[in-house]
Amino acid sequence: MPPKPGRFASWTRPFGMIWFSLRLHWEALKESVRREGLAGFLRVSQIRDAASASLFNITSSGFIAYEDTTIVPSLVQAASGVVLDMGPGPGNQIHRFDASAIEYIYGVEPNPRFKDGIDAKLEEHNLKDKYKLIVCGVEDSDVLRGEGITEGSLDTVLCIQVLCAVDDPKSVMKEVWKLLKPGGKFIFWEHGWSRNRGTTVAQALWNPTWSTFVGCHLTRNALGDILNAGEWENPGDIEEPEEPFSLLPRIQGVLVKKAN
């Protein structure tokens, strides 16, 4: 594993990603105006979706390579039964599922621009018959019910870098807890506030620009949102690797929903 970057490198790292995303937003804006004239300026959500999909599709291989140096591959392989893959984005985790342990996977992704990339990866890894992409959020319970995803219906929910990007992580986690069967698994690798005071200042300074153009928040209490969603059998198993200078310090683990 390569050495971790020092304080200065860690705290200035967001600039490159933000600058790249700014360029992609500009390209998406120009394309929107080209298609729709002046009305294209008003298509804010469509411009954001297009730029976000471009950003994460282009950087997908880099994210996969980095995650290969972490616990992520083994976390994904722990998914079993009927699985909800939260916010799959470009489908970075698709190749990591243990197909022999999976009954079916529902990918819940609100950005429709990721569909083509996900379809290509499902074809490549022979998962088309076991994976269905649903274009919505976990909060869209009416849509999920229409697909048969109801309270207590899921064996596993996989959540890899998603809570940072949803509108309301507290309500999302409460929905996740409801959807899991008693004894079901919530598998996660997330980031939030640092425990290092200097790093929290850097997170707060970067967050307005980072959240606007990259689409995720650096200053969320992911650990609290997860633990407060409902009763878990093994909250003490959550791991927090020591990353004092990282603006994306991780929490990770496999929580089991407590039976009534």
From TrEMBL:
Q: Which InterPro entries match?
A: Methyltransf_11, SAM-dependent_MTases_sf, Thiol_S-MT
Top-level taxon in the UniProt lineage? Eukaryota
Q: Which residues form the Methyltransferase type domain?
A: 84-188
A single GO molecular-function term is: S-adenosylmethionine-dependent methyltransferase activity
Coiled-coil residue spans: none
Gene3D superfamilies attached to this UniProt entry:
Vaccinia Virus protein VP39 (3.40.50.150)
Protein name (database record):
Methyltransferase type 11 domain-containing protein
| Source organism of the structure | Aspergillus puulaauensis
